[in-house]
Amino acid sequence: MSTPSTSLLLAETEAWVKPVSTFLGPFLNFMSFAMLCRVVSSWYPETNLNSFPWVIVAWPSEPLLKLAKGKIPPAFGVDITPVFWLAIFTFINEILLGQQGLLVMKMKYGI
Prior knowledge:
Layout: H1 6-42, H2 52-69, H3 81-97, H4 102-109
């Protein structure tokens, strides 16, 4: 039984990295933007999240906010769940797709 060569193994593992990073980059950036918009919209309580520009960011972010609202207590009476999710999406983006991110290192050096 022979072991697979390193170049063959590298070619097989690199096949999934590019599509994943191509999808994750825009997705994580959009979700970070959506959470940032939710932070800004919370400053203006009269904002109707069902109207046109806000519905674009409210629809994908609402399930995540509902998931965390009961578990993350308000800080000084302010709901901080959008800030929590903004930090999570930014962290994941940096770890996977940043300048020295795991997927970037895998694409560049096959590490």
